[in-house]
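fyi for ur records
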Amino acid sequence: MEQVRARGTRGLDRLRLAVAGTAAWDTLVDQPSDIEETVALIAPAAEWEAFPRSYRIAKRVLDIVVASLGLVLIAPLMLVIAAMIRLDSPGPAIFRQERIGQGGRRFQILKFRTMVNGCDLLRDGPHKRPDDARVTRVGRLLRRTSLDELPQLINVLRGEMSLVGPRPELPEIVDAHYEPWQYRRFLVPQGITGWWQVTGRGKKLMYEHTEDDLYYIENASFRFDLLILAKTVVAVLRREGAF
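which gave:
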């Protein structure tokens, strides 16, 4: 694992040096730009299209097959979860939130609601923590078992997300914390699970995992995606970093 992180760090250092030496870097640092425009400059779509076509097709086929079958098979479970949420606290069962997807495009991510309805995520903090009083009783159970993420299979089916990739970030976090080089994580489809989830799940804030996301991008392959999916199953069963 240390070897993997070392390789990822070297790649990250090369990326910082490559981007920092350009006029684009200076422009973005001095003049904040629209997220999608920044991604187009730092991580142009042509780079994703340069990935092997066989990988891009296989990845999308896997997404469609798993999301379609998954939604059919777990539909009864999702109905039960929705009913539990509605009985436990007032408000909708599904939580929608704007996130940044591949290419900097904005979309509405879907999750089962785990917090009290109407809480201000930006004011009280958007990232989860073990002692969060905003989390409902059913919500705590859903988070521990990662069942709150199931509606994102709809996002995957729509093509807004993939099963595997960097997690889609909040626009406010991108605007407030991202340096230009970090926008590279939006080069690939954003995922339900990813490399950092299976190597340090829940231990750091999402934007602090850019090194792991860039390592994934540098080494992206269908086999790597399958490995991450397998490790995700183990992490969920062990409830590592889930609260």
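The chain has a mean pLDDT of 83. thats all i got for now
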